[in-house]
Amino acid sequence: SGFNSTNPSDPLHIQNGTASIFKCIEKCTNDIGCRTVSFDSTTHQCSLFGAWKFEGNLSSSPTSQVAFVPQ
Fold this sequence. Notes:
Radius of gyration: 11 Å
Low-confidence stretches: none
Mean pLDDT: 91
Number of helices: 1
Strand order of the largest sheet: 2-4-3-6
Order of helices and strands: EEHEEEE
Largest sheet: 4 strands, antiparallel
Helix content: 10-25%
Number of strands: 6
Strand content: 25-35%
């Protein structure tokens, strides 16, 4: 994952088979508690987080993308 939350309830959801970062963001916008997403383009894994992106640590990975989703 490209994001490690400091929130103990995170990740909210981990979903496999997500086609793109845009689909991952779409899933986040449909979950009122979601604020940050991490998408791995190799495994197509989408992780939804309740923490704001500044409430965690970004990890460097060439296949991971992280996005902040204002709700």
